[in-house]
Each structure stands twice: as C-alpha cells, then as structure tokens.
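FIELD: query
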Amino acid sequence: QVQVKESGGGLVQAGGSLRLACVASGDSFSSYGMGWFRQAPGKEREFVASIDWFGRSQYYEDSVEGRFTISRDNSKNTLYLQMNSLAPEDTGVYYCATDSVPMRYYPTRDRADFDSWGQGTQVTVSS
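FIELD: result
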C-alpha cells in the first residue's frame, strides 16, 4: 500500500501562491491516480483536484479551476499542487490521497475512491 506525506503549507497573503508536495513511499506510485482534498475548520473534507495515474488527465473543483494546477512526477514519486491567486476561503488542511483502484481510466473526485491519506499540511491565507 502506498503511504504519502504532504509538505509545503504555510501562511500567505491573499493573492499569493504556494506549492504543495506529496511524496509517496513504495514502487507502485505510478500505477495510481492521486488527489488533493482540503478541510476547513468546522467543515467536511472536500475535493480539490485529482490526476490520473499517468498524468494525462486532471479534474478540478470549480472554485479552484484556473487557479490551482495538479501535477505529478512519477520518477520522483511526488504529487504537486500549485496554488495561485490564493484567497482566504482556500484556508484549511490539505491532504493528498491515493486512488484505491490502480490505473483507473479517469481521475476520480469521489472521496470514497481514495484509501491512503497523508497527515495533511496547513494552508492559511490572510486577507
């Protein structure tokens, strides 16, 4: 089973940028789609973006479309989330997760499809 660990969170002013990284252990990272989720205080964990196992297709939540970019480097077992034009409503703990199905044809956004979760990294956007 793939294990993942996030990094790159921090405090940033509105309009700023951050790049999150998620490093996976094991040699099967390249066989699985990956996703980013976030959880704001008092709210449920929500989908942000996902990418298929090969990096060909991406799927974004509407509010981040055009501002965030998900990518992966399978040679480094690393998933990324480039976040630009950050807004206070982007504040939360960001988690990466691994799709439970290897080589799924499309990137999924269903939280129930992901089974390996990291500990999360805090992103705080000040106004």
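FIELD: remark
The chain has a mean pLDDT of 96.
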